[in-house]
Specification:
Order of helices and strands: HEHEHHEHEHEHHEH
Number of helices: 9
Strand content: 5-15%
Shape: globular
Strand order of the largest sheet: 5-4-3-6
Helix content: 40-55%
Radius of gyration: 19 Å
Largest sheet: 4 strands, parallel
Distance between the termini: 13 Å
Structural class: alpha/beta
């Protein structure tokens, strides 16, 4: 959705590759993608996404276009750099939380935040709550991407520790848990904000568990980095 919107705003063509059979009626993010003018391509499963993207890119090159392929989650050093800039913007706004919680899946968000902290010299705990991968696997992906961001910035600053929690995945990716349902309802009824069961509700569940376990020292400030998902709730 964000990519299609950005492309529309800049007058660029956008092709989106999605998993699953083409539905008779579009809903959620796919409906917004189409509204923004993106061309939708459906494949049988997640494993077919990258090959299909490369096929489309090759076809576009033959026709004289210059495609830029964005992988799943936009999780490349270039994509993660946007989140590093986001953290720097947060600091410019005067926000300096002791702990930052967010959803983490393909690693780009967390890598950008970690790199942003390193580039700015800002000391904070950045805790990613995994939506699918094990903590060990995801932490390795984050470190690699964050290193790529540092390379783009020409910095040799040391990266802070990468913290990932994988205890809130439940039965799997996109499947609600009791904790995510509680977190979603709590935020909606206290702050009128929406989180989704694939990513942000599970991340918020991790934050609630963190607070209830009194893991944060007294007087600490905590920030929940909301990465979206509102449209998915209505799909």
């Amino acid at each position: 959705r964000a990519t299609a919107a950005a492309a529309a705003k800049r007058g660029l063509a956008c092709h989106v590759v999605l998993s699953g059979p083409e539905p008779s009626a579009l809903s959620g993010n796919a409906r917004l993608d189409a509204l923004f003018g993106a061309s939708l391509h459906f494949v049988s499963g997640r494993a077919e996404r990258n090959p299909r993207m490369e096929e489309i890119a090759a076809e576009l090159r033959v026709s004289g276009r210059k495609p830029f392929v964005i992988p799943l989650g936009a999780s490349t050093p270039t994509g993660a750099a946007g989140l590093a800039l986001g953290l720097l913007e947060m600091l410019e706004q005067g926000q300096r939380p002791d702990v930052v919680f967010h959803a983490s899946s393909s690693g780009g968000t967390q890598a950008g935040l970690v790199a942003g902290a390193a580039l700015s010299g800002f000391t904070t705990r950045i805790i990613g709550v995994s939506a699918d991968e094990s903590a060990e696997t995801l932490a390795g992906i984050v470190r690699s991407l964050a290193g790529g961001v540092m390379g783009l910035a020409g910095s040799v600053a040391a990266l802070p520790p990468v913290e990932v929690r994988d205890g809130f995945i439940g039965e799997g990716y996109g499947i609600p848990t009791d904790a995510s349902r509680e977190a979603q309802t709590l935020l909606a009824r206290t702050e009128a904000l929406i989180v989704d069961h694939t990513y942000t509700a599970k991340a918020l569940a991790g934050l609630l568990a963190f607070v209830r376990a009194q893991e944060a020292p007294a007087g600490s400030s905590l920030l929940f980095w909301h990465t979206g998902g509102q449209v998915g709730v209505l799909a």
